[in-house]
Amino acid sequence: MYNLTLNHTLSHANRSFDIDTPVDAETVEYLSKMIDDFLDSNPIAKKSVIQDKEIIKKIYYIGHWNRSGEFNSDFKIPQLWAPLLIVLPPSLLDGKSLINLGRFYSKLGMEALKRGYALAFCNSFDCHDPRLEEIAEYLHVDYDLLVKNKTDDEFLLKTFICIGNKLIPDSPHNWDWTRADAFVSCPKLDVNFVKDYT
Amino acid sequence: MKYPGLLESIKNVINNSPARCGRVYFECIITKEDETLRLKFIPTTTYFDIDDRTDLEATMPSSFTFYESHHHTGMAIGSLECFFQNNNIPYRIDESNSPKYFEVLVDV
Questions:
Q1: How far is CA A101 from the centre of its chain?
Q2: Residue A77 in domain
């Protein structure tokens, strides 16, 4: 009776994008305007809309935090290789601001889905990798301050939105181009977190 | 009931809200007062703490867990808002008790 399709799609990370087909300019402009309007009334984050393939490549290469300390491991986060990356690093870290930022992420993602694009969210990022310095400005990172202050377990607080066409049309969302296989998914923890007292 | 079957769809949307690696970072308490559904979203690390798949993240800094728990809670609310908008169902957001919890209210 109710259309749940887009909500279900929103919850599944698409793992393989067609990096060579850019997101159309009108969509990029629309999403960018959505962000501007949101941040005008909620100045709680900064804005990066990244379409430069060379910058995306650098993000992709340092997108996985390897706790062993190894940089550039074989394991990569496949969805970061997408033609459009949006990241809104929070400038306010209180709970209310972060919840409102999360609300906006879903709305931004839903707009991309409505326009026929595939979508993934991604929190993974290796801020220990010194190559971060090369792209710090695109992620609103003060690299010198980060190096000075960070602990062994420092983790940049940001979520990427990866947008583009699927690499293989009609393929499952979890098809992983880096392994030519399905990405192993984690099912949601089996607990009763939605409690109905009606 | 203006919207037959709505409650089950709402629970479906919330249960399927975006989550990194299947994490659960909030509770949703659903109550009904008169003809209004009240959906209370409460950020919590209760379920993160019992998720043994997170062992590799045992030393994840608390700043990240705080960020992710609230961001995930917001994404769940945002997903539900999109569901209401896509299905032309009016709703209201009550932020007056945030960040302890956010409420989504729907007249049914």
A1: 13
A2: yes
Q: How far apart are CA A105 and CA B74, in angstroms?
A: 8
Asked whether residue A198 is assigned to any structural domain, the reply reads no
| In a domain? residue A193 | no
pTM of the model: 0.95
How high does pLDDT run on average in chain A?
92
Q: Is residue A41 packed enough to be buried (19+ CB in 10 Å), middle (13-18) or exposed (0-12)?
A: exposed
- For residue A49, which of A76, A23, A79 has the smallest C-alpha distance? A23
Q: Is B17 on the interface with A (CB under 8 A)?
A: yes
- The DSSP H or E segment spanning A36 is helix A25-41
- CATH fold, domain B6-107, is NADH Oxidase (3.40.109)
* Residue in B closest to A10 by C-alpha: B18
Does B18 contact chain A (CB < 8 Å)? yes
Q: What is the pLDDT of residue A145?
A: 85
β-pairing verdict for B36-43 and B92-94: unpaired
Residues A79/A15, Cβ–Cβ less than 8 Å: yes
Provide the CATH number for the domain around residue A114: 3.40.109.10
Residues facing residue B102 across a β-bridge? B41
Q: Which of B75, B104, B108 to mutate to test the interface with A (most CBs of A within 10 A)?
A: B75
Does residue A192 form part of some domain?
Answer: no
pLDDT, one tens digit per residue, over A47-94 is: 999 999 999 999 999 887 666 666 677 788 999 999 999 999 999 999
